[in-house]
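Write out this protein's structure.
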Amino acid sequence: MHPWQITTICIALLSPLFCQAETHLEHRSNRQLAVTVCNDYRVTNRLPCFVSRNDCPSGFEVIEHFSDNRGPAFSACRDKRHERPRPTHSLYAGKNPQLLKQFDRLLSEIEKRQVGKLIRLPKASQEKLRIFFTAIDLNTIELGHSKALQKGCFTDCRKIFCARGGEIDAWADPQRPLLSKTLLHQLAQAERCEIQGGRDRFLLAWLKHLPDDIFDALDRGEAIDTKMIRYATYLEGHATNRAESICRRVRCE
């Protein structure tokens, strides 16, 4: 049995917590990272995924490609041979650089209407969550409240903005910090950004649509619902599943 098959069995059959906690990101090979992504994809979508040396073969689509860590490059691949071709003329097709400019504009408005200073997760929360989020340094995550948001939360990789200041205060309470599914969902996206290789690569891979209605509302001085910011279905499903899985292991409200 090849080593990649053993790793796949470990992640597929044993606890995800065990497999993730076993090896920190700096010690994980490109193959191990690709195996983790495939496992997440299979659990979330109930569809096959396999790990390929370098690029995916014809008929298979790259979910994520890893070449920055130790050893040769590997890709997590999904089978798309039986899918109908997707239209490619949409303004919001994947890898559209225009989305980066739009995202910068959105972030500028959110930061412009930020209330108070950004704050960090308490040490108690970091210690509880560190074993689950091995790919990021939780001490680098900053939390903020913005009046540009009418509902929900929004992640800019290492910055998390929410519409409700009380929610941020509860997460950052040094005496009794709150752990919630919403916070864990945002941290899962922050971790995915780190694994993806940074903000631009993360956005080009997963951000799908920023409707004009967002900017029209902001230009009128109105706040927006973060559900208007549309990410790929897989990313949202992955973050939701990660949050729910961690909530079953820690006290989550």
